[in-house]
């Protein structure tokens, strides 16, 4: 639906499709997702000029969206310490323990404009099949003696889009350095040690993200190198980076 509409509307007009349930959701590498009631599910259309800071670094968009989802919760007064985090390149996590959302970005370049379709989904009030944001809020209330209210999917979709708009504006003005300090505040990888190529492969340490949004790792004796998201699978459970 949105793929057909996006070229028919004026560029300055926003376009988003929101689903209450999803039976044919797509993930990276051909993964298929079933999304029950209680998830925030949407596809957003954006246009980005090719000759702009973000247009020259399109892979960064998935990081900005992941950060916007986390910020949609953690920027609410009282909710700053809810353990919602980002995992490179496109996942939303509870601490570094469990995935509760993800982002998938498709881009089409027409003349000098990128048409970006951003699909993002995250668990808000559905405890199954993994965990949801309202579970984290309930857990926080029990541990801290607070009375934070549960959140709704429509509220968090609206907040995510609003935060994303602000992050894009900052990126266009200041480039990666305008948003990376904030991204690192919420990501799960700081100082993590990983193995390259296999479980017996050389040890490397995650350093950060380069100017184009690719993961940087430091292999002993070899210096820092960038790892491309589309050519590598980062297995959080085994701390392993594997070229496909």
From TrEMBL:
CDD domains: BPL. Keywords: Ligase. Belongs to the biotin--protein ligase family. NCBIfam families: birA_ligase (TIGR00121). This is Biotin--protein ligase. It comes from the Eukaryota. One of its GO terms (cellular component) is cytoplasm. GO terms for molecular function: biotin--[biotin carboxyl-carrier protein] ligase activity. Residues 1-172 form the BPL/LPL catalytic domain. PROSITE patterns: BPL_LPL_CATALYTIC.
């Amino acid at each position: 639906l949105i793929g057909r509409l996006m070229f028919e509307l004026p560029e300055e007009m926003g376009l988003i499709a929101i689903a209450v349930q999803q039976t044919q959701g797509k993930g990276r590498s051909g993964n298929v997702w079933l999304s029950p009631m209680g998830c925030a599910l949407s596809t957003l259309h954006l246009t980005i000029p090719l000759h702009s800071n973000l247009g020259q670094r399109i892979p960064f968009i998935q990081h900005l969206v992941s950060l916007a989802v986390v910020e949609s919760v953690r920027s609410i007064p009282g909710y700053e310490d809810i353990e919602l985090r980002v995992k490179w390149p496109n996942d939303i996590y509870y601490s570094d323990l469990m995935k509760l959302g993800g982002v998938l970005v498709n881009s089409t370049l027409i003349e000098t404009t990128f048409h970006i379709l951003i699909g993002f989904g995250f668990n808000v009030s559905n405890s199954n099949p993994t965990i949801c944001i309202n579970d984290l809020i309930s857990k926080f209330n029990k541990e801290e003696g607070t009375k934070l209210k549960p959140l709704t999917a429509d509220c968090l979709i609206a907040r995510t889009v609003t935060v994303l708009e602000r992050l894009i504006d900052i990126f266009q003005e200041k480039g990666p350095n305008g948003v990376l300090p904030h991204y690192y505040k919420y990501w799960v990888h700081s100082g993590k040690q990983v193995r390259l190529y296999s479980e017996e492969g050389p040890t490397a340490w995650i350093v950060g993200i380069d100017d184009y949004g690719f993961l940087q790792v430091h292999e002993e004796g070899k210096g820092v190198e960038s790892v491309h998201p589309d050519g590598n699978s980062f297995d959080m459970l085994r701390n392993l980076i594997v070229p496909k």
